[in-house]
Each structure stands twice: as C-alpha cells, then as structure tokens.
C-alpha cells in the first residue's frame, strides 16, 4: 500500500459501453446490468470514498449520497456485533421518511465519528430535515461501521470527522452515473473476509420493467467467500461467469491446496469483522417495502459468504429507494383488475426483492475479485487472485 494518506477517491466519468446479460433469473424476463454495473446506475445516487493508508493506517469511509430531498431508507441488522448510528430513525414508525446520505466506515465504534463529518457537510449545503426557516436543518445520516482496527499496524488509526467530510465531498463532486472504484478503497480499505483481502464491490440489475436495482458492499466477514474444497467463490453461478472473467472450469488441485493452506494460516486472526451493504432502487417504495428489501438482500449475502450473521459480525444492509420510477408501469396499474391489484403490486415488489439479493451476491464477488494483496505491520492479507494463482481481467487497484 502507498505510504502517504490518499485524498478522496472519486469515480471515473468513463462508463462501459455495454454490460453482459446475466444468466437465468427468478423473473420470466431477462435482465441486464446498468451502464456502469454499479450503485450509481440508480439515478441520483452518488458514491464517494476517502481512504487512509500508510503510517500504520489501513482504513477508510464510503458515503452514498442521495439526490437532494433524500431517499426513502431502511435498514436490517442481522449480525451479533453491530456498530451503527441513527438506525432507529429508519424504523417505519418514526418521523423522518427520507435521508440525504448513508455512511459505511471502518474503525469499528470509533469510526462512526466519520458520520459527523457528513452531517456537517450536509448542513453547509442546507440539506437535511427541515425544522425551521432556511438553513435550519437537521441532517439524519445513518451509519454502520466494520472492524478493521490495527490492520495497518496502528490501533489508533481510524476514520474521523475529516475523513467523513472528504468522502461526502468526493461523492458530491463525482459525475452522475459514473463507475465506482472497487477493491481496497474507502470502507473496504482494511476489510478482510475469511483470511483473504476483502473490499468494496458493486453491481446493478435492470429489470424488464425498466426498474434498476443496485448494490454496494464492503466485504469484511468472519466467514469465507471461498469453498475450501474447490477454491471456487461461493456466490459464483454459471450464468454469471462472463461478468467476472470466470469460465467455470475447476481450479487445478495444486491451486486449491495452496489456497487452503493460506486460508488455514490466516485462521488465527482476530475474529471481529462485519459486512456492510447498501441495496438501492429507483422504484417508488414505502418505508415498509424498503425494509423488506433490506431484509431479503441478506439472502444474497448468505449465498456469497459462509457463515454470516455471527456474533463476531455486525452484518448490516441499508435499502434506499429514490422513487424516480413507479414500481408498476402506469399501463399495468390501469389494466389491473382491482380484485387482483394487490397481487400485481406484490409481484412487482417480489421482482425487486429477488434482484436485490442476486445483485448483492454479485457485488460481493466483484469485491473479492477487485481486492489486492496487502502487507502492513499489522499483517499480511492475500487476495483471492493471489491465493489461488488466478490471472483474471478487470478489477481495480487501490493504494
């Protein structure tokens, strides 16, 4: 990793011309990825990273910035050791319906201070829950932290107010709809999953109705993303091979053996982790529906990481809905028999829920493939590619 602290990590404005079509899905309609295959394919959402490395630091913060006016947001916490802030405000029974930003950060409970920097930036912009005249706003900024303390060598190197401010500023300065940097960046800088280097990953799905569902994840799990018997990533599916540069062929026995040895060597590491994710859609959802999306997205986490939701994990998924598109096309609502309208709506929501789980699985795969081996005074963290001797295209390098 680089020896000096890095500035905010911004997304490139360049977008892929075409993304691969995915394999069979629960819906009868074929689906495709969005232009960037990233969370930013949900119109209005922007992502900013701020990364701190060198001098004993290996940590960072990632901010998902909603369009002005906010997004309907919910959360589902399944892990036994969560570190969160303002998540009670997302209960459907509470007052604030929309939030301006969600924060994912390293640093465990200490790193939640990064959210204060995001709150300060939003107040500077006059964005937040209005409680009076112009400028009188209270930004509600939900946040969740993962455990990466000491992985750079310095236990006291953590995200703070400044890093949060820089991350949200990077999000605001980024181009709409651009690509999102993946791998060892932002909240994923110090992430580790089952002894292998984790990091940031993202993916998107466009349904046949035109609704977009996308995910962003910081993979930092007590469990593993890899089947030790085969060396294959748990979440990989045959229909998705082209998206990840995988051909579905079994790994050579020597590679599987070496990979298993590296995993075993890393097994003595501290068991504290936590995987964090944001699943988003441009469909109009109620807060209760968004809560359901956050919950079913955990299924996608469980397909790609085994085991999950342990006492040593604080696994948390946020769901955001911008409401730029109706859940059901207008003609479908008009043509629906009133008796069966509830079933039509449920079917449309089910498609979003299923896509949310699958898209989070794919985002986790991208995170593992984009990660790079990191060596610091705090430890050696081999990436999946190096542990199994894979030479695959794509991925991004950080630090």
UniProtKB/TrEMBL annotation:
Region feature Disordered, mapped onto this chain: 1-33
Entry keywords, A to Z: Aminopeptidase, Cell membrane, Hydrolase, Membrane, Protease, Transmembrane, Transmembrane helix
One GO location term (cellular component): plasma membrane
Coiled coil region boundaries: none
Signal peptide (from-to): none
Compartment(s): Cell membrane
Biased composition (Low complexity): 1-27
Keyword Iron-sulfur: no
GO molecular function: aminopeptidase activity
Record's keyword annotation contains Phosphoprotein: no
Membrane topology, record value: Multi-pass membrane protein
InterPro entries xref list: ArgJ-like_dom_sf, Peptidase_S58_DmpA
Main function: Aminopeptidase.
Family: Belongs to the peptidase S58 family.
PANTHER family: BLR5678 PROTEIN, D-AMINOPEPTIDASE
Protein name: Putative pantetheine hydrolase
């Amino acid at each position: 990793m680089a020896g000096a602290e890095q500035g905010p990590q911004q997304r490139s404005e360049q977008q892929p011309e075409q993304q691969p079509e995915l394999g069979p899905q629960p819906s009868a309609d074929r689906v495709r990825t969005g232009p960037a295959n990233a969370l930013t394919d949900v119109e209005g959402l922007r992502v900013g990273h701020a990364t701190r490395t060198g001098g004993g630091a290996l940590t960072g913060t990632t901010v998902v910035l909603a369009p002005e006016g906010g997004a309907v947001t919910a959360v589902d916490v399944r892990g036994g050791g969560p570190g969160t802030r303002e998540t009670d405000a997302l209960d459907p029974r509470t007052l604030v319906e929309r939030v301006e930003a969600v924060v994912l950060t390293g640093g465990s409970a200490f790193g939640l201070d990064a959210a204060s920097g995001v709150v300060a930036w939003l107040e500077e912009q006059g964005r937040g829950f209005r409680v009076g005249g112009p400028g009188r706003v209270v930004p509600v900024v939900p946040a969740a932290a993962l455990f990466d303390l000491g992985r750079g060598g310095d236990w006291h190197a953590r995200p703070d107010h400044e890093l949060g401010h820089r991350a949200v500023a990077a999000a605001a300065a980024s181009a709409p709809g651009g690509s999102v940097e993946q791998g060892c960046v932002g909240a994923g800088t110090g992430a580790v999953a089952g002894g292998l280097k984790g990091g940031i990953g993202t993916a998107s799905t466009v349904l046949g109705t035109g609704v977009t569902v996308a995910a962003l994840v910081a993979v930092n799990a007590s469990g593993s993303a890899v089947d030790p018997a085969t060396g294959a990533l748990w979440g990989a599916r045959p229909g998705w091979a082209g998206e990840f540069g995988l051909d579905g062929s079994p790994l050579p026995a020597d590679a599987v053996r070496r990979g298993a040895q590296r995993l075993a060597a890393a097994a003595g590491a501290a068991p504290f982790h936590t995987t964090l994710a944001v699943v988003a859609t441009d469909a109009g959802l109620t807060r209760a529906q968004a809560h359901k999306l956050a919950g079913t997205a955990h299924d996608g986490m469980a397909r790609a990481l085994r085991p999950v939701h342990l006492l040593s994990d604080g696994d948390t998924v946020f769901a955001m809905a911008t409401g730029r598109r109706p859940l059901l096309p207008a003609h479908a609502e008009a043509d629906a028999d009133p008796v069966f309208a509830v079933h039509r709506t449920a079917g449309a929501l089910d498609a979003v829920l299923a896509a949310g789980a699958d898209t989070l699985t794919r985002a986790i795969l991208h995170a593992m493939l984009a990660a790079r081996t990191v060596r610091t005074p705090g430890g050696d963290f081999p990436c999946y590619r190096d542990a199994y001797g894979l030479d695959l295209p794509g991925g991004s390098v950080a630090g």
